[in-house]
Structure prediction request, 169 residues.
Amino acid sequence: MEEKVVLVTEKDEVLGLMEKMQAHENGILHRAFSVFLYNSKGEMLLQKRAAEKYHSPNQWTNACCSHPRMEETYEQAAKRRIKEELGIDCELEEKFWFIYKADVGQNLWEHELDHVFVGNYEGEFNLNKEEVSEVRYISLENLNIELENNPEKFTEWFKIILEEYKHHF
Prediction:
């Protein structure tokens, strides 16, 4: 069964549900969240998307991004997905939200009202290999160098969200 996303106005008023692929094909605004996780050294966790993903396969991105279900809060959805993708639990704090639109290739668009969460995690991961092929921590300095030298290795939305994130911290 195809997963559905929650369509919203720019004020986060619910308009209804739509199949995820249809929303991405048509670039329709929907709810999303992004999670940034850090270790005790202040390094950011990156995940590499699985090769089987229908868009942006084998690209690096932040710890977790996805969509809340109709009955979920943004925080509930973020905690559900870090458990489903990374096999972990941790406390998350919402920092801000914003709207963006990104061309992710293959005539697909991410047009999202994105709530951004931050947390800290030290420990083992139990990766869902259908979602994530590997994870790694990286210093922000080295991340900026990699983004400059090899931007194609990172998801389009991660580059947008990271720039917005830098304006808040």
The chain has one domain: 4-168. The longest strand covers residues 109-120. The radius of gyration is 15 Å.
